[in-house]
């Protein structure tokens, strides 16, 4: 038993299979006879002895012993095992160790040059007494076979030749002894890794046995055995289509069980994630039910529950493949992913808040806390939406959630509470519009929390937010959900019409009218997803990911030009162009730095050769040729040229209500248009709205005057005439084609003002940072302001002078104030203050209108 015990000890301490703790002690040119002897022992489960062997090829002409003969490196000693007679059959591993047996063994030692003859079966008492033959012979043979396979490709070729059908390896994999399984798995892996050898017909059987070994070893926490079996299983799946088919049909549940049992073991989790990715990468696909069953495990991998980049990237690719395969039916998984990301960020925010509890209080933490509170509400709302949508797609509420395919996901936080609140007798009604609204609020809240926090931004990138953003932008999942809802409602209506009157009206009162189905606000989802992408596009790792994705780059470019029907929103178009500019230009610049790294960066050191566009700056007419990034974007055009082949040459591009010839716009990225040189813009025009205004609605001339009474949130509505004319886009672009046009966004909520000072300084400093990062000030600039915007510009220029940003100060050619106080030197804006007073009273502001006026007048007189 000592040999078997030593082998168990050695194999139990093999933490990594790639770096086995022992080198092969057997030669790389083993004889076929030696290998055949070991194979026979494994195949028959024991050894024959004391039978005269008639070998015509024997060198010395004497009778031999049918057993194992192994030449050891650095010597000529040959080892063998002998007993008096008979075959030692495979016995019970749990047999009593003290059981009497007439079979005795002897350790034989001989040398090549010895002339020993008439070898007798001498009995050596002591260590080898009362042993079952297979306890030593089979483990010893498996060990020898593994060492030979490691030693050379010649040995592996001999093993393959002697075991053409793979049954010997299969026997070792199914052996009851742990050490035989371990070495058998190693032999299987080595044979499969040798690409010179043909695949055995038994590879699919090997895979089945290896996966069973992984599952059993995971349950018993035998991680070493699980690792070596998993490494062989991974190679078998990679090389054999039959093995893949077998696993997809019969083995996925074993892989899931192993993943659950080995959450703390990184190496096993990496192997399982690689194997699952291999299964999903080919022509075969996970079924929808299997994808749902795996979702909980995959999302835990994505969120970094296993500290491995390999596991995270594999999980992201598998989930992305699921979204591509099942579209709207995979929405509960994508929503669950977004919910878990938000939950992780909220936990991070709580940890940061707890550490910073001793810091002095100021207005900034109050605003941040309000964002966290809003994000918490959005997370809870989205968690409820995930549960309701999952149950609606299931069609019923089961007695136990454990029987639901999404059980692993729904039983985790923060879905546990909504699950408990479900009514078993009435499944929740499915509503695509409400599901889309929950997603919108979640993306918006996540963006607000992470907009100025680089740690948060890097975390959500690691958690796979880019996969979700890509899906939100490029797909129509929520529109398709709405279509499915309308179709189901129409089918139910048809069934009602065929229902006999005897059933009564009570059975059809719950049928939904197809005309009442609301269309999900997918345009809002795209807009908020594009905003978050713009913020993240300043991170170097995000720039590399987007740059490598030609499909995504082309979609962003087409969206910015207005070539995509779902991208008519000017904000979405601006975000798309800004993201591309951030990606291309910062890669060219080599800095890869963003402006969202800290709450108070040093703006005096933010000058760069390449502009960086944040989410507060909107590009007007982003499809025009001057929105380009010089040679970097031209180089990108070469990559995307093949993907855009076959498109018509004369395509008109609609940007808002302004029609521009797409043939002119293509010159910004098409290297073939070198003949039409695009000159750099000569100056910039910046539009800055005022109190309760917006970057677009302030500058519209509404044909329907009632539309000017809309609330703070600008609604996306493409009905003709309702939004009116956005005159900076339609008029100034034609009058000043050599100018870049921007419009800025900032918060003007009166209720966020503190009692001690106006938030003007903070708002102005933030806008100044964004302007300098975007390269505004490098050329002449004109500010066009309305209402409070004039005060903001005045403070921006004052701050720029303090920070010695001479470019912006000296290049400011003019400030146009519309209905503001810039022209008089004292606050004379009745409409502004009437709105301020009314809004402060209506919203319960702690600051009285009179005090607002007095403090504002005092501040303005000091800075004028």
Automatic annotation (TrEMBL):
Highest taxon of the lineage: Eukaryota
UniProt-listed InterPro entries: AB_hydrolase_fold, ARM-type_fold
Spans annotated as Disordered: 630-654
Gene3D superfamilies on file: alpha/beta hydrolase
Bias (Basic and acidic residues): 630-642
Protein name as annotated: Armadillo-type fold
